[in-house]
Amino acid sequence: MEKILSFIIPSYNSQGFLDTCIPSFAHEKVLGELDIIIVNDGSQDDTAAVAEKYCRMYPGSVRLISQENKGHGGALNTGCAAAAGKYLKVIDADDWVITENLPAFVGQLRDCSADVVLTHYHMNNITTGEVTAWKSFPGEFGRSYSFREIMERWKDFDRVLTFHGITYRTDFYREKGIQLSEHVFYEDHEFATIPCCYAREILPLDLFVYEYRVGDVQQSVSDENQLKRIGHTRAVLERLIREYAVLDLQPEDAGREYYCMKTQGLLLSYYITALLVEKNKKKGRAMADTMMARFREEMPRVHELSRKQYRVFRAMNRLHLSKNAWEKIKSSKVYNALRHNHDFS
Length: 345
Prior knowledge:
By secondary structure, the chain is of the alpha/beta class.
């Protein structure tokens, strides 16, 4: 049976999560059309043994690739190279999919030719129990959009133009020859930015697929770990700068603006960590100022996009305000009104 969709599952010491993740793919109507690749990235626990159990349980649909540790990006590189499906989507081992929505998703992909397919996802906070829906709001679901159209309505699409919302046509992804950075965190920004900016057809679907688990203090997205790994964020930003310099896109191509908007998002995360999370305020200002100067020189458009918020974060740093204060500002009616009017994006 033709494989329509490859799910790539980078797995490092994931034995405690695979029993939730893998069964979520087992919908009898479409399991035969799924190519589920567990990439065991040098795990030191029983990840491989758990994965082998599911290879036996779902032969022809689940397979295991084991490799020496290369980090999340290295595992994705291996999985994407091995994908047999017409489309590919990455699901982290501690996340899962909505099983009952798989037939509708695979059905859309069977006859699809879009370079990128976008789907909604939920963010599941395991500490608070809160579930947040992240959706797109196109004028019409089920028809392809160009980047020109998307950039004209950026706030209707930006929440799903992410690692969790993107599904790539496999041939399109491979044609770009992208190798994600190895042994760094936050390379998912490369995954959602570098290949995607070349897309000519982007198809949004009114469908939830990905269930994203958050709220674990051990996760890379926690404040403590973002500060600890701020050098990883810096490394990914430097990669994005280098790739931007060699983009095979015309200056007027809307894919360039997309690339800049996505880079801005990671840059703002860097500024928040340096200026609001770092307790040594002087050190944080020095890190942020250096990065601001770098983008002023190398990617002026990103510098322009991030300048207003940079100034706000720097002022908050001077006042010794924390990230919690910023979260309160973001939830205010005044901020949301400014954001809606694109005065403070």
